[in-house]
Amino acid sequence: MARDQNVQEVQPEAPSIDDLGVQEFLNGFAEALTEGDGDAIAEMWEMPAFVLGQDMACVVSDPEEVAEFFGGARKQYREIGITNTRAEIVRLDEITDQMSMVRVRWPYLDPDGQEMGAETSTYTLVRRGDHWKVRIAVLHGKEAVN
After folding, report:
1. Are 78 and 59 in contact (CB under 8 A)?
2. Strand order in the sheet with 99-109
3. Which residues does 88 contact at the CB level (< 8 Å), separation at least 6?
4. I need a labelling partner for 123 at 20 to 30 A (CA). Which of 2, 13, 45, 102 fits?
């Protein structure tokens, strides 16, 4: 079949992860975490929420619980030399227009930006208006040190 020289093939562009605004949400989460702003993080959760870990399961129904937990995390991390983190999306699944599931790797960064380890969590996010909120957090734990 002859090809028209004036026609260009256009490859469909893969959607960007940030088309959903999830990376932006997680960047705000990381910033609030490293600043120790528990109140800002509590605003990012929808109540009731559910937190699941290897040896624990917890329903969270009070934003103050979230604020207190994350507000104190900065001090705990600083005591072991961790001063920063960033949200690295490992996997993102859009379940519906209003719900997504995202696996996030959180590297532990020292004052020089060097990685000292990491942990991973999976979040089920729900959209409320223009904002994402955490509804379920599954804590995978720290990465094994090689």
Report:
1. no
2. 56-60, 45-53, 131-142, 115-128, 99-109, 88-96
3. 104, 105, 106, 107
4. 13
Residue 33, Cβ density class (10 Å: 0-12 exposed, 13-18 middle, ≥19 buried):
buried
> How many other C-beta atoms can be found within 10 angstroms of the C-beta atom of residue 19?
11
Q: Domain-by-domain residue ranges, the chain?
A: 19-142
Q: Contact at 8 Å (CB) between 106 and 97?
A: no
Amino acid at site 4: D
Give the pLDDT score at 1: 47
| pLDDT per residue as tens digits for the range 54-92 | 999 999 999 999 999 888 888 888 898 999 999 999 999
pTM for the structure as a whole: 0.83
- CATH C-level class of 19-142: alpha beta
SS3 110: coil
- Proportion of the chain in helix, strand, coil states, percent, rounded to 5: 25, 40, 30
What percent of the chain shows pLDDT beyond 90?
Answer: 74
